[in-house]
Write a structure and sequence with these properties.
Length: 178
C-alpha cells in the first residue's frame, strides 16, 4: 500500500488530497472506492469481472464504467475501459453497428465501344500513415505475353457449384492470346 501511495505522489501532487484517501483493511481507498494500482494485469482482471462475465452480458463502455466505478478507481479508468470494450472480440462480432447504412453498390454497365464511358474514383488527401502503408503495399501489375499460362482468382466468378465453399479457388490454366 505504501508503494501505491508513493506512485500517486510521484504522478501528480494535485491528485493526492488526504481527505479523499483512506485506508481500509490494508486497502488504499479513494472516495470510498478501492484504488487499483497502475498494474495493467490487475486493471484488466477488474474490467473482465464487470464486462466479460455471463451475468453482465458484455455491456458497452458506459455501463461497464458504471459497474467498475461502483467499487474501484484508478487514474484514466474511463479511457482504459473504452479501449478494452472497443477491442473485445465478442462485442465486435455480435453488437449491431449503429450507423446509417450505406447505399448499395451497382456495377457500371458495359459500354458499347471503347472510351464510350469513363469512370473515375477520387481518393483525396489520405492520412500520412495510410499513404505510407499503401505505397509499401503497391506492386506493379504483371505483364503477360502471348503464350503465357495464367490462373484466374475464382472468388468473384459465379460457378455451377451449389456452395462458394465447394468452388475452386483458382480457375485455369488459361493461355494468353493477345
Amino acid at each position: 500500500m505504501a508503494k501505491a501511495a508513493k506512485e500517486l505522489q510521484q504522478a501528480s501532487s494535485k491528485m493526492v488530497c488526504s481527505a479523499e484517501w483512506s485506508e481500509d483493511k490494508e486497502l488504499l481507498c479513494f472516495r470510498d472506492k478501492i484504488y487499483v494500482s497502475q498494474n495493467l494485469d490487475l486493471q484488466r482482471r477488474v474490467v473482465l469481472l464487470c464486462h466479460d462475465m455471463k451475468v453482465t452480458g458484455h455491456p458497452g463502455h458506459w455501463k461497464t464504467l458504471e459497474l467498475v466505478s461502483r467499487d474501484y478507481w484508478w487514474p484514466q479508468m474511463s479511457r482504459y475501459i473504452r479501449q478494452y470494450v472497443s477491442t473485445c472480440d465478442l462485442c465486435i462480432r455480435t453488437k449491431p453497428i449503429r450507423q446509417a447504412l450505406v447505399g448499395e453498390l451497382h456495377p457500371l454497365q458495359i459500354p458499347d465501344s471503347r472510351w464510350d464511358t469513363l469512370s473515375v474514383d477520387f481518393v483525396v488527401e489520405l492520412p500520412h500513415d495510410m499513404k505510407r502503408y499503401y505505397d509499401q503495399q503497391k506492386t506493379l501489375a504483371p505483364v503477360f505475353k502471348p503464350g503465357d499460362k495464367v490462373f484466374l482468382d475464382a472468388s468473384d466468378i459465379r460457378t455451377t457449384h451449389p456452395s462458394q465453399k465447394l468452388s475452386h479457388q483458382r480457375l485455369g490454366p488459361f493461355v494468353v492470346e493477345r
